[in-house]
Amino acid sequence: MDSIALLLVVTGALCHAAWNLLAKKAAGGLPFVWLFGLVSSAAALPFAAWAWHANPAPLTALAWAAIAGSALMHAVYSLVLQQGYRKSDFSVVYPLARGTGPLFSVTAAIVLLGEMPNRAGWIGILALLAGIFLVSGAHRIHRAATARARAGLLWGSLTGLCIAAYTVLDGWAIKVLGLSPLLFYVLCLGLRTLILTPQALRDMPAVRAEWGRNRPAIVAVGILSPLAYLLVLFAIQRAPLSYVAPLRELSMLIGVYLGARVLRETLVPSRLIGTVFMIAGVVALALFSQPSP
User: Fold this and answer.
1) Which of 11, 13, 19, 16 is nearest to 218 (CA)?
2) Confidence of residue 216 (pLDDT cuts 50, 70, 90)
3) Tell me, what DSSP letter sits at residue 239?
4) 144 three-class SS
Protein backbone atom coordinates (compact mmCIF):
# COMPACT_ATOMS: atom_id res chain seq x y z
CA MET A 1 0.00 0.00 0.00
CA ASP A 2 1.54 3.32 -1.06
CA SER A 3 1.60 6.44 1.11
CA ILE A 4 -1.24 8.20 -0.77
CA ALA A 5 -3.59 5.24 -0.35
CA LEU A 6 -2.63 5.06 3.33
CA LEU A 7 -3.34 8.79 3.78
CA LEU A 8 -6.72 8.41 2.05
CA VAL A 9 -7.76 5.54 4.31
CA VAL A 10 -6.56 7.19 7.54
CA THR A 11 -8.32 10.47 6.69
CA GLY A 12 -11.45 8.51 5.86
CA ALA A 13 -11.21 6.74 9.22
CA LEU A 14 -11.00 10.10 11.01
CA CYS A 15 -14.10 11.35 9.18
CA HIS A 16 -15.92 8.10 9.89
CA ALA A 17 -15.18 8.19 13.62
CA ALA A 18 -16.25 11.85 13.78
CA TRP A 19 -19.62 11.36 12.10
CA ASN A 20 -20.37 8.25 14.14
CA LEU A 21 -19.67 10.19 17.33
CA LEU A 22 -22.17 12.84 16.20
CA ALA A 23 -24.71 10.19 15.18
CA LYS A 24 -24.35 8.44 18.54
CA LYS A 25 -25.10 11.67 20.38
CA ALA A 26 -28.11 12.42 18.15
CA ALA A 27 -29.56 8.85 18.20
CA GLY A 28 -32.25 9.96 15.77
CA GLY A 29 -33.14 6.69 14.03
CA LEU A 30 -34.47 6.56 10.47
CA PRO A 31 -35.46 10.27 10.27
CA PHE A 32 -31.87 11.19 11.11
CA VAL A 33 -30.51 8.78 8.48
CA TRP A 34 -32.89 10.08 5.80
CA LEU A 35 -32.19 13.74 6.56
CA PHE A 36 -28.43 13.44 6.49
CA GLY A 37 -28.82 11.45 3.27
CA LEU A 38 -30.56 14.45 1.73
CA VAL A 39 -27.76 16.73 2.92
CA SER A 40 -25.13 14.33 1.55
CA SER A 41 -26.85 14.17 -1.85
CA ALA A 42 -27.10 17.95 -2.10
CA ALA A 43 -23.47 18.48 -1.02
CA ALA A 44 -22.10 15.86 -3.42
CA LEU A 45 -24.20 16.74 -6.47
CA PRO A 46 -21.89 19.49 -7.83
CA PHE A 47 -18.89 17.19 -7.58
CA ALA A 48 -20.78 14.41 -9.35
CA ALA A 49 -21.68 16.85 -12.15
CA TRP A 50 -18.01 17.76 -12.46
CA ALA A 51 -17.03 14.07 -12.59
CA TRP A 52 -19.63 13.44 -15.31
CA HIS A 53 -18.38 16.44 -17.31
CA ALA A 54 -14.76 15.27 -17.00
CA ASN A 55 -15.64 11.72 -18.10
CA PRO A 56 -18.94 11.72 -19.98
CA ALA A 57 -18.79 8.04 -20.95
CA PRO A 58 -22.29 6.48 -20.87
CA LEU A 59 -23.08 4.12 -18.03
CA THR A 60 -23.65 0.55 -19.16
CA ALA A 61 -26.46 -1.70 -17.99
CA LEU A 62 -23.92 -3.56 -15.84
CA ALA A 63 -22.82 -0.28 -14.25
CA TRP A 64 -26.43 0.65 -13.43
CA ALA A 65 -26.93 -2.82 -11.96
CA ALA A 66 -23.90 -2.27 -9.70
CA ILE A 67 -25.24 1.15 -8.67
CA ALA A 68 -28.68 -0.26 -7.87
CA GLY A 69 -27.19 -3.21 -5.98
CA SER A 70 -24.94 -0.98 -3.90
CA ALA A 71 -27.79 1.44 -3.12
CA LEU A 72 -30.01 -1.43 -2.03
CA MET A 73 -27.29 -2.90 0.19
CA HIS A 74 -26.64 0.49 1.79
CA ALA A 75 -30.36 0.88 2.46
CA VAL A 76 -30.57 -2.61 3.98
CA TYR A 77 -27.48 -1.82 6.05
CA SER A 78 -29.14 1.33 7.43
CA LEU A 79 -32.32 -0.52 8.35
CA VAL A 80 -30.50 -3.49 9.90
CA LEU A 81 -28.33 -1.13 11.93
CA GLN A 82 -31.39 0.77 13.15
CA GLN A 83 -32.99 -2.52 14.18
CA GLY A 84 -29.84 -3.47 16.06
CA TYR A 85 -29.89 -0.19 17.95
CA ARG A 86 -33.51 -0.82 18.92
CA LYS A 87 -32.81 -4.36 20.12
CA SER A 88 -29.45 -3.90 21.85
CA ASP A 89 -26.82 -1.45 23.08
CA PHE A 90 -24.84 0.83 20.77
CA SER A 91 -21.61 -0.28 22.44
CA VAL A 92 -22.33 -3.86 21.35
CA VAL A 93 -23.87 -3.42 17.89
CA TYR A 94 -21.57 -0.77 16.40
CA PRO A 95 -18.20 -2.35 17.29
CA LEU A 96 -19.38 -5.79 16.17
CA ALA A 97 -20.64 -4.32 12.89
CA ARG A 98 -17.33 -2.61 12.20
CA GLY A 99 -15.32 -5.61 13.41
CA THR A 100 -17.05 -8.37 11.47
CA GLY A 101 -17.30 -6.31 8.27
CA PRO A 102 -13.58 -6.57 7.43
CA LEU A 103 -13.55 -10.29 8.15
CA PHE A 104 -16.28 -10.88 5.57
CA SER A 105 -14.70 -8.35 3.15
CA VAL A 106 -11.25 -9.92 3.25
CA THR A 107 -12.69 -13.39 2.69
CA ALA A 108 -14.74 -12.20 -0.28
CA ALA A 109 -11.83 -10.21 -1.77
CA ILE A 110 -9.59 -13.28 -1.65
CA VAL A 111 -12.24 -15.68 -3.01
CA LEU A 112 -13.91 -13.43 -5.61
CA LEU A 113 -11.20 -10.95 -6.64
CA GLY A 114 -8.15 -13.18 -6.24
CA GLU A 115 -6.31 -10.66 -4.02
CA MET A 116 -3.93 -12.93 -2.12
CA PRO A 117 -1.82 -11.16 0.55
CA ASN A 118 1.73 -12.24 1.25
CA ARG A 119 2.93 -13.36 4.69
CA ALA A 120 3.33 -9.83 6.07
CA GLY A 121 -0.07 -8.93 4.66
CA TRP A 122 -1.68 -11.89 6.43
CA ILE A 123 0.04 -10.94 9.69
CA GLY A 124 -1.21 -7.37 9.35
CA ILE A 125 -4.75 -8.44 8.53
CA LEU A 126 -4.85 -10.92 11.41
CA ALA A 127 -3.38 -8.37 13.82
CA LEU A 128 -5.95 -5.79 12.78
CA LEU A 129 -8.83 -8.22 13.13
CA ALA A 130 -7.56 -9.42 16.52
CA GLY A 131 -7.33 -5.82 17.65
CA ILE A 132 -10.84 -5.07 16.41
CA PHE A 133 -12.10 -8.17 18.24
CA LEU A 134 -10.56 -7.01 21.52
CA VAL A 135 -11.48 -3.34 21.17
CA SER A 136 -15.09 -4.21 20.37
CA GLY A 137 -15.38 -6.37 23.50
CA ALA A 138 -16.71 -9.27 21.45
CA HIS A 139 -14.70 -11.69 23.63
CA ARG A 140 -16.95 -10.78 26.57
CA ILE A 141 -20.30 -11.31 24.81
CA HIS A 142 -20.56 -14.97 25.82
CA ARG A 143 -20.28 -14.02 29.51
CA ALA A 144 -23.42 -11.91 29.32
CA ALA A 145 -25.74 -14.33 27.60
CA THR A 146 -28.81 -12.15 28.06
CA ALA A 147 -31.41 -11.79 25.33
CA ARG A 148 -30.23 -8.20 24.76
CA ALA A 149 -26.59 -9.27 24.38
CA ARG A 150 -27.50 -12.10 22.01
CA ALA A 151 -29.58 -9.67 19.95
CA GLY A 152 -26.59 -7.33 19.76
CA LEU A 153 -24.38 -10.17 18.56
CA LEU A 154 -26.94 -11.16 15.91
CA TRP A 155 -27.73 -7.68 14.56
CA GLY A 156 -24.14 -6.49 14.81
CA SER A 157 -22.94 -9.45 12.76
CA LEU A 158 -25.73 -8.97 10.20
CA THR A 159 -24.73 -5.33 9.88
CA GLY A 160 -21.12 -6.42 9.34
CA LEU A 161 -22.29 -8.76 6.60
CA CYS A 162 -24.06 -5.85 4.89
CA ILE A 163 -20.90 -3.75 5.17
CA ALA A 164 -18.85 -6.51 3.58
CA ALA A 165 -21.39 -6.95 0.77
CA TYR A 166 -21.44 -3.33 -0.31
CA THR A 167 -17.66 -2.96 0.18
CA VAL A 168 -16.93 -5.86 -2.18
CA LEU A 169 -19.60 -4.76 -4.67
CA ASP A 170 -18.30 -1.19 -4.67
CA GLY A 171 -14.72 -2.41 -5.04
CA TRP A 172 -15.73 -4.51 -8.04
CA ALA A 173 -17.54 -1.58 -9.64
CA ILE A 174 -14.55 0.74 -9.17
CA LYS A 175 -11.74 -1.67 -10.03
CA VAL A 176 -13.31 -4.02 -12.61
CA LEU A 177 -15.92 -1.82 -14.28
CA GLY A 178 -13.69 1.26 -14.01
CA LEU A 179 -16.45 3.56 -12.75
CA SER A 180 -15.59 6.98 -11.35
CA PRO A 181 -15.66 6.63 -7.53
CA LEU A 182 -17.26 10.05 -7.15
CA LEU A 183 -19.99 9.55 -9.72
CA PHE A 184 -20.66 5.99 -8.59
CA TYR A 185 -21.03 6.91 -4.93
CA VAL A 186 -23.23 9.96 -5.53
CA LEU A 187 -25.61 7.95 -7.72
CA CYS A 188 -25.72 5.22 -5.07
CA LEU A 189 -26.30 7.79 -2.36
CA GLY A 190 -29.18 9.44 -4.21
CA LEU A 191 -30.83 6.10 -4.97
CA ARG A 192 -30.37 4.91 -1.38
CA THR A 193 -32.06 8.05 -0.06
CA LEU A 194 -34.88 7.53 -2.55
CA ILE A 195 -35.33 3.96 -1.31
CA LEU A 196 -35.72 5.20 2.28
CA THR A 197 -38.05 8.08 1.32
CA PRO A 198 -41.39 6.18 1.60
CA GLN A 199 -40.61 5.18 5.19
CA ALA A 200 -39.59 8.72 6.10
CA LEU A 201 -42.71 10.26 4.54
CA ARG A 202 -44.94 8.06 6.67
CA ASP A 203 -43.93 10.05 9.74
CA MET A 204 -43.15 13.61 8.67
CA PRO A 205 -43.81 15.07 12.16
CA ALA A 206 -40.93 12.94 13.45
CA VAL A 207 -38.75 14.08 10.54
CA ARG A 208 -39.49 17.77 11.23
CA ALA A 209 -38.85 17.27 14.94
CA GLU A 210 -35.55 15.56 14.20
CA TRP A 211 -34.46 18.43 11.95
CA GLY A 212 -35.28 20.97 14.62
CA ARG A 213 -33.54 19.00 17.36
CA ASN A 214 -30.34 17.87 15.59
CA ARG A 215 -29.85 20.20 12.61
CA PRO A 216 -26.10 20.87 13.19
CA ALA A 217 -25.36 17.16 13.59
CA ILE A 218 -27.43 16.29 10.51
CA VAL A 219 -25.47 18.76 8.36
CA ALA A 220 -22.10 17.66 9.75
CA VAL A 221 -22.85 13.95 9.30
CA GLY A 222 -24.29 14.66 5.84
CA ILE A 223 -20.90 16.04 4.80
CA LEU A 224 -18.52 13.79 6.74
CA SER A 225 -20.25 10.49 5.93
CA PRO A 226 -19.90 10.62 2.11
CA LEU A 227 -16.45 12.17 2.41
CA ALA A 228 -15.27 9.25 4.55
CA TYR A 229 -16.51 6.63 2.09
CA LEU A 230 -15.36 8.49 -1.04
CA LEU A 231 -11.84 8.55 0.37
CA VAL A 232 -12.06 4.77 0.77
CA LEU A 233 -13.25 4.34 -2.82
CA PHE A 234 -10.31 6.39 -4.11
CA ALA A 235 -7.99 4.27 -1.96
CA ILE A 236 -9.44 1.12 -3.55
CA GLN A 237 -8.25 2.45 -6.90
CA ARG A 238 -4.66 2.46 -5.61
CA ALA A 239 -4.48 -0.55 -3.27
CA PRO A 240 -5.93 -4.08 -2.92
CA LEU A 241 -9.37 -4.30 -1.34
CA SER A 242 -8.11 -6.99 1.06
CA TYR A 243 -5.82 -4.33 2.57
CA VAL A 244 -8.14 -1.31 2.38
CA ALA A 245 -11.13 -3.08 4.00
CA PRO A 246 -9.37 -3.93 7.31
CA LEU A 247 -7.30 -0.75 7.39
CA ARG A 248 -10.36 1.49 7.20
CA GLU A 249 -11.34 0.03 10.57
CA LEU A 250 -8.81 2.42 12.06
CA SER A 251 -12.02 4.32 12.81
CA MET A 252 -12.42 1.79 15.65
CA LEU A 253 -9.07 2.86 17.09
CA ILE A 254 -9.99 6.53 16.80
CA GLY A 255 -13.38 5.72 18.30
CA VAL A 256 -11.75 4.21 21.40
CA TYR A 257 -9.83 7.45 21.91
CA LEU A 258 -12.93 9.61 21.36
CA GLY A 259 -14.97 7.37 23.64
CA ALA A 260 -12.46 7.79 26.44
CA ARG A 261 -11.81 11.51 25.94
CA VAL A 262 -15.17 12.84 24.77
CA LEU A 263 -17.74 10.38 26.12
CA ARG A 264 -15.73 9.50 29.24
CA GLU A 265 -16.01 5.77 28.61
CA THR A 266 -13.77 3.39 30.56
CA LEU A 267 -10.64 2.31 28.69
CA VAL A 268 -10.32 -1.30 29.88
CA PRO A 269 -7.05 -3.30 29.47
CA SER A 270 -8.44 -5.40 26.60
CA ARG A 271 -9.05 -2.21 24.59
CA LEU A 272 -5.47 -1.08 25.19
CA ILE A 273 -4.16 -4.47 24.04
CA GLY A 274 -6.45 -4.33 21.02
CA THR A 275 -5.11 -0.88 20.17
CA VAL A 276 -1.55 -2.24 20.15
CA PHE A 277 -2.63 -5.07 17.80
CA MET A 278 -4.27 -2.59 15.44
CA ILE A 279 -1.21 -0.34 15.31
CA ALA A 280 0.98 -3.37 14.56
CA GLY A 281 -1.41 -4.42 11.81
CA VAL A 282 -1.34 -0.97 10.21
CA VAL A 283 2.46 -0.95 10.23
CA ALA A 284 2.62 -4.43 8.65
CA LEU A 285 0.15 -3.52 5.91
CA ALA A 286 1.61 -0.10 5.14
CA LEU A 287 5.32 -0.83 5.26
CA PHE A 288 6.04 -4.51 4.66
CA SER A 289 3.28 -6.04 2.54
CA GLN A 290 2.71 -6.36 -1.18
CA PRO A 291 0.10 -8.58 -2.88
CA SER A 292 1.34 -11.96 -4.02
CA PRO A 293 1.23 -12.44 -7.81
Assistant:
1) 19
2) very high
3) S
4) coil
